[in-house]
Automatic annotation (TrEMBL):
Domain N-acetyltransferase: 3-170
Native source species: Pedobacter psychrophilus
Protein name in UniProt: GCN5 family acetyltransferase
GO MF annotations in UniProt: acyltransferase activity, transferring groups other than amino-acyl groups
Domain of life: Bacteria
Keyword check for Transferase: yes
The entry's keywords: Transferase
Lineage: Bacteria, Pseudomonadati, Bacteroidota, Sphingobacteriia, Sphingobacteriales
Record Pfam families: Acetyltransf_1 (PF00583)
Amino acid sequence: MNVELQKADHSQAVKIWEILQKAIQRRKAEGSNQWQDGYPNLDIIKTDIEKEQGFVLIDGEDILGYCALILNDEPAYAEIEGKWLSDDDFVVFHRVAIDDGHLGKGLAKKMISLIEEYTLENNIYSVKADTNFDNMAMLKIFKNLGYTYCGEVYFRGGARKAFEKVLSKTSINI
């Protein structure tokens, strides 16, 4: 497998939405309330793509996963109950989802490593993210990749665990 992270385009929106719908169903089956309130949805994906914030994890022509990458713009993060590790520029990632047919291959971890590379390529040294308190898979990935728990942030009325990783040129684990 030769996976890459690249900006999504509008022709990929339907496939991305299929991947996210299955991820939403998985979260529900796991008993989680994350992503059970109409978010994310196809309009969000289209907006991500229009703003050039939507990214696909691909292997050749196959879309394996999706995420949104946002530079220095996450209003909820300014209201953290806790403290970030840094106040410098940052990349935040949201809406991480891997296609059902490719689960269990370490692709979410690979995607986040590629996000870290993208961050460094843009001369930014901080990656921030959040997840629901019951998203055990993502919590495990954060731990395994060296992310630090910084506190809680709030989205759509619910608390999320917030994490940050401060990067150096030697911190990428691919």
